[in-house]
Amino acid sequence: MSYKNTPPPFGSRPLGSEKNHLNRNVIIGSINPTNFYVHELDKVLSRKPGWTDAGPCPFHVGDSPDSFQVDLNFGAFRCLSCEAEGCDI
Q1: Cα Rg of the chain, angstroms
Q2: Distance in Å from the first CA to the final CA of the chain
Q3: Contact at 8 Å (CB) between 54 and 45?
Q4: Which of 5, 37, 62, 85 could cross-link with 57 by S-S, CB 3.0 to 4.6 Å?
Q5: Element containing residue 86 per DSSP (H, E)
Q6: Which residues pair with 77 in a beta bridge?
Q7: What is the model's pLDDT at position 16?
Q8: Where are the beta strands (DSSP E) in 15-73?
Q9: For 57, left (φ over 0), alpha (ψ -120 to 50), or beta?
Q10: Could you give the CA distance from residue 5 to residue 60 in angstroms, rounded to a whole number?
Q11: Cα-flanking dihedrals φ and ψ of residue 27, to 5°?
Q12: 68 phi and psi angles, rounded to 5 deg
């Protein structure tokens, strides 16, 4: 029995060694930040580009209705109360 053509276990190949690996930029570029946040959050006050209020913070489950903001151009988010922030959806 030969194991010569058997693929290695999941996660044992270095990232990028596969011919058809997923490209982070392609995935992020295919997600529309406005559509994502409107779908995922209960409240997005505006669909215009730029920073907009998005309701209470989902990270610290705050009571303030306007502590969480999202940037509908780039997909970034920030909380004005707990200071959670990020740049990719």
Answers
A1: 19
A2: 46
A3: yes
A4: 62
A5: strand 85-86
A6: 70, 86
A7: 52
A8: 51-53, 68-71
A9: beta
A10: 49
A11: -65, -50
A12: -100, 130
Distance in angstroms (rounded) separating the CA atoms of residues 13 and 25: 20
Other beta carbons less than 10 A from residue 36's beta carbon: 15
- Quick one: average pLDDT of 53-60? 85
Mean pLDDT of 13-23: 59
Contacts 24+ apart (CB under 8 A), 74-78: 74/33, 75/28, 75/31, 75/33, 75/36, 75/37
Q: What is the pLDDT of residue 59?
A: 84
Please tell me what DSSP assigns to residue 47.
-
The DSSP secondary-structure symbol of 7 reads P
Sheet holding 85-86, edge to edge: 51-53, 68-71, 77-79, 85-86
Contact predicate 66/55, CB 8 Å: yes
pLDDT for position 78:
92
Q: Name the one residue in this structure whose structure tokens are 């669909």.
A: 47
Whether 67 contacts 78, CB under 8 Å? no
